[in-house]
Amino acid sequence: MGSIGKILKNSLFLFFLLSYFSSCNNSVFKYTSPEAKRFSSEKLEKLKEHLAQSGSSALMILVDGDVIFDWGETKKKHTIHSIRKALLNSLYGTAIAKGQIDTSMTLRELGIDDIPPSLTKNELDARIIDLLKSRSGVYHNAAGVSKGMLLGKPEREAHKPGEHYYYNNWDFNVLGAIIEKKTGKSIYDLFKYEIAKPLGMHDYKGKYSSIDGESDEEEIPDNDGFYQYERSKSKYPAYHFRMSARDLALYGQLYLNKGNWNGQQIIPMEWVDLSTKPYSIYDTKYGIAYGMLWYVKGKSFYHTGLGIHMLAVYPDSKMVLVHRVDTEQDFNYNKADFYKTIGLVFDSKINR
């Protein structure tokens, strides 16, 4: 082989070597021992056994930004269900900071209406801030509503805007439509460029599609998100995200950091504080409230999906917790096992 051939061969070898190490170091996570963050490795082994037996698909624990527990298929994307609302929170924070969203605007001013029976005069008085708190007073049919939601659904015009809390998919779906209208971009593109890329998310690429939620033949698309239309109920689709546990963990860490990432303020700190305050206490026994697109308990805040997925931020413990179940497949997961999982996590802390 001539000298030029050797140079090319060596150059190619060096290129592939650098590419290999670059890919190995692509993770934005730093791993450390549980004991370094005052957790017990022995007790976390019991947590692993429980996760395997109960049917979880993944669980991650970050403390001070470092991973102390990484179990299961943390790279696998599947639907996050209602945790989608917590993702929307960040997009509103950035849009408000840019002056693209005025939360005092009413549905009337925004030109928002729905299929018949159309919104009433009183319902059109609802403001964006009311929708963010799930207190719009609009009880129109909506896409993506569970049977549990329907059980507590008030009659139309039972309450004025801002007067009553009801966990309302109509509010959440319309918030998605509003931010797309005001920014001129899809939710999935906004999330990609405003959040995923700055955080260095591994698996979210922003690819999305749509499905007919009223068809039994539709399958969940193999991408990062999809609009679920149920046109007999509402013209506004539910917007679903499919994400990995490790990408959700990064998102939780962003909120633990008060919206700051490597010195860059991705989400305004004021918005993080404002939206994680309790505005509607709905469980007095456990002190659980709803803020703006987050559940709130004391200083901690979280969102669940189907009552078994969870993204939680615990500022006092400097901890982020992500729990996943692959609900896109046939599953038999007991909600009691979810509560036991959370208990085992906190039982693993070394209190000294």
Summarize the structure.
35% of the residues lie in helices and 18% in strands. The protein has 352 residues and is of the alpha+beta class.
Structure description:
The chain is of the alpha+beta class and 352 residues long. It has a single domain, classed as 3-Layer(aba) Sandwich (Beta-lactamase), CATH 3.40.710. Helix content is 35%, strand content 18%. Strand 12 and strand 13 form a beta hairpin. It starts with a helix and ends in a 5-residue tail after the last helix. The N terminus is likely disordered.
Q: Report the sheet-strand fraction.
A: 15-25%
Question: What is the percent of helical residues?
Answer: 25-40%
Taking all residues together, what is the mean pLDDT? 92
Largest sheet: 9 strands, mixed
Main sheet strand line-up: 1-3-2-15-14-13-12-11-10
Head-to-tail CA distance between termini: 66 Å
Which H/E pattern describes the elements?
HEHEEEHHHHHHEEEHEEHEEEEEEH
Q: Could you say which overall geometry the principal axes of the C-alpha atoms support?
A: globular
The CATH H-level superfamily is: DD-peptidase/beta-lactamase superfamily
Low-confidence stretches: 3-26
Protein structure class: alpha+beta
CATH level 3 topology: Beta-lactamase
Q: What is the strand tally? A: 15
Q: Cα-atom Rg, whole angstroms?
A: 22 Å
Total helices: the number is 11
Tally of distinct domains: 1
The CATH class label is: Alpha Beta
The oligomeric state of the chains shown is single chain
Q: At CATH's second level, what is the architecture?
A: 3-Layer(aba) Sandwich
